[in-house]
Design goal:
One of its GO terms (molecular function) is metal ion binding. The chain is of the alpha/beta class and 378 residues long.
Length: 378
């Protein structure tokens, strides 16, 4: 997010995106750097940024090559739906939010969650501290910003849980992928990712003081606290190909190297920040270090091992997808996921392999750092 929100619409609109995404039909090219390596394409959700640092590090540090893989990272964009790229055979794996990917599955995409890298949601609703808005219940009667495109369901589930009808009790405002509407007081609460848009607020200058805003200027509604969080970044594989033993083995190797990449970024946040910047990120160094730190919080600690799909978190995501309605009355899903929607078989094998190589796959001692942001995130 800036941006991982892939412009795939939920439910009915999802089918249109599956059929109409122009760039997804263009075959990405790859050139193996070594004929002995297996070329692999990983479709990301957005442009290069620290949200994808673990994959970037796995390439940069040679972890994929150790597994015999030559991995090409494909940047996302506004007109690229990762799960569609995967389902149509244009990539070998893809990174996508769970509810969006499940909506695509319901429309026929043959994909399976094989590694739930983000174990926690990073979505906030942010308001000015002096507004008094500290919970979903206090959004009633307010102007509430949201991005739409399937990113709104944690917000809507939180409001519904608090007894607020999203279609009647608030004024919904289509929010741009920045925080200008909140900064200009055009809305009362804005959607933000902990690792991106929230930082944009703290990188902005308060015109009254000439200094940057601080966390004391804002209040945060965290959907993890409100009980309406949904699973986000996961590695998805081609379901049909998972019947092939060679693809199964490849998936384990890919996940093993991916685990190493994320563990490296947990222990070397500044180095991974530098890799992301060198990769061509459009965001500045302090912003990327903030993002790396916040993304690590979504991954670590991983009690069951990084990437293992927690049954309770999966069930909550599916339940919200089935029952929460947006302002038009649509839900993410019309029915419970069928077939092999997710499996821990391959990530567990990868965890065993990574542990055998001396990798800490749980990060129990992980402690986030304090990042000092600069104006504009430079």
């Amino acid at each position: 997010m800036r941006k991982f929100r892939i412009f795939t619409a939920i439910a009915a609109t999802s089918a249109l995106m599956l059929a109409g995404c122009g760039t997804a039909d263009e075959e990405p090219t790859t050139t193996a750097s070594n004929g002995a390596l297996t070329p692999i394409k990983l479709q990301l959700q957005w442009f290069f940024q620290a949200q994808f640092a673990g994959y970037i590090a796995a390439v940069d540090q040679g972890f994929y090559k150790e597994q015999g893989l030559d991995v090409q990272l494909l940047e996302g964009g506004t007109d690229i739906v990762p799960q569609t790229v995967l389902a149509t055979g244009k990539a070998d794996y893809a990174v996508a939010w769970v509810p969006k990917a499940l909506a695509s599955r319901e429309q026929g995409a043959g994909i399976t969650d094989v590694g739930q890298i983000f174990g926690r949601s990073g979505t906030y609703q942010v308001a000015w501290k002096d507004s008094g808005i500290t919970s979903a219940a206090q959004l009633k009667g307010k102007k509430v910003g949201n991005w739409g495109f399937g990113n709104e369901f944690e917000l809507f589930a939180g409001m519904t849980k608090a007894g607020i009808d999203p279609g009647k009790d608030v004024t919904l405002v289509q929010q741009q992928f920045d925080m200008q509407a909140l900064l200009k007081h055009e809305i009362d609460a804005a959607q933000a990712m902990s690792y991106n848009e929230y930082a944009q607020l703290l990188e902005a200058k308060n015109p009254k003081t000439g200094k940057l805003y601080t966390a004391d200027d804002f209040s945060i509604i965290d959907w993890k606290t409100e009980g309406s969080a949904m699973l986000q970044d996961a590695v998805w594989a081609n379901t049909e190909k998972l019947n092939d033993p060679a693809y199964q083995q490849q998936t384990v190797k890919f996940l093993t190297a991916t685990i190493k990449g994320w563990a490296f970024c947990r222990d070397n946040a500044e180095k991974c920040r530098d890799m992301v910047v060198a990769k061509g990120s459009k965001l500045g160094k302090s912003h990327q270090l903030w993002q790396m730190n916040e993304v690590n919080k979504l991954v670590w600690p991983a009690t069951g091992g990084i990437g293992v799909i927690d049954d309770a978190a999966w069930k909550q995501t599916v339940d919200i997808s089935l029952t929460t309605k947006n302002q038009t009355g649509d839900t993410v899903l019309k029915k419970a996921p069928e077939g092999l929607a997710y499996t821990n078989d391959y990530i567990n094998q990868a965890i065993t392999a990574a542990k055998g190589a001396g990798v800490d796959v749980n990060g129990a001692s992980f402690a986030p750092t304090t990042v000092t942001l600069t104006e504009g995130g430079a």
